[in-house]
Amino acid sequence: MASLHFDPFDPGILDEPFAIHRRLRDETPAYYSEEFDCWFISRFQDIWDLESDQRNLSSTHGTTTTHLLTHQTPVAPNLTSYDGDEHKRIRKYFNPHFLPGAARRLEPLARELAAQAVDRALERGGGDAVSELGGWLSVRMACTILGIPLRDADQILEWVNGYFDREPGHRGTTARGLRAAKELGLHLFGLSRHARQHGAPEGSVLEQLLNVELEGERADDRAIAIHLNMMVIGGTETFPKIFSAALYRLAQHPEQRARCIADPALIPWAFHETLRFDMPTHMLGRSVANEFELHGQTLRPGSGIMFLWGSANRDEREFEQPGRFDVDRRAPRILSFGAGQHQCLGAHVARMEGRVLLEELLRRAPEYRIDEAGVVRLQSEFFRGFQRMPLLLRGGDVG
Predict the structure, then answer these.
(1) What domains lie within the chain, and their CATH numbers?
(2) Helix or strand run (H / E) with residue 220
(3) How far apart are CA 176 and CA 159, in angstroms?
């Protein structure tokens, strides 16, 4: 067998990395890349445990590929970059907007928006599952929670998508992506400044940010923009990918789709299984803060450490037949929202959105088809999934 070499930017593995993931799990579960001075961790239990390690790992140097691998973006002081007690203190201000009770209160709005999105698609005979269904819903829900005017939603979505733009042969964020990130940040800065003078929507995150002391003093407009930026990206970017993946897998397994239509109680489990099977984020990580041992390797301070979430979610040590999509699977734990202290803030809202949008589409367009000729997959070291996935909801021939 050839010696194992893992390059997270290898275009040959960006869409289907699972063969090399399995080799990593079996042969080198703690893989070191000298080029990036970074460790890549591939087994479920290792990542589950390390996600909660506040002693040996730190988020202060960033968590994404553009922080830890390409070093293109500076670390902004937001929830993802705090450790320990500081993280707990900041997170407690945001938690009430995203807990299960908040998700239940938001469900009527999500249902209304989902119905509108499906209405528009049905009127046209189809639409893009990524941008016109998943993205359309998620950005409007994020704007509502955060206090961003809904008139800005489409532009916000364009900026967020632009930030994660990738080009073949170019590692990490492109010039267009950096420009989109700057424009989004400036817009949110201006929004905070305007709200400081004229008020923010009642009950929104923006209103709270304007009125609480996060670190012993009131946050300025730059700090508020940074927090809003983190949450609007988190609430907008990954949901369209997982929603479109759910439609794709159900179309691939018509008997499972038929069961979900007949018994909508299966829909949350179908979404849960898609989260495991098609985890959209290839990896996130930390930096090593204190020397420790893992699988006979010594991890030293200063190195990066990346958690290969897609690999972990298909680890045979955790899941029986992990390469099989199965809505009857009842996996008690997955890593699609992370784990431990840094678990995704919006997990409950995202699950609610996924359930509601799938319910609306399967109820009103149960025979949807996917125009395979129009499908475009992402080519990114950070995300995996669909960039475009046209649906046919009535008439027309696929291909």
Answers:
(1) 18-392 (1.10.630.10)
(2) none
(3) 10
pLDDT in tens, 26-43: 999 999 999 999 999 999
Closest CA to 357 of 244, 269, 278: 244
Q: Tell me the per-residue pLDDT of 61-73, one tens digit each, with 9 for 90 and over.
A: 999 998 999 988 8
Angle between helices 153-163 and 221-236 (to 10 degrees): 80
Give the chain's length: 399
179: nearest Cα among 78, 80, 73, 81? 73
Q: What is the DSSP string of 365-396?
A: -TT-EE-GGG-EE---SSB-SEEE-EEE-SSS
Report the alpha-carbon distance of residue 276 to residue 283 in Å, rounded. 14
Q: Quick one: pLDDT at residue 215?
A: 67
Give me the phi and psi of 216, to 5 degrees please: 90, -5
C-beta separation of 100 from 348 below 8 A: yes
Query: What is the pTM assigned to this prediction?
Result: 0.94
pLDDT score, position 395: 38
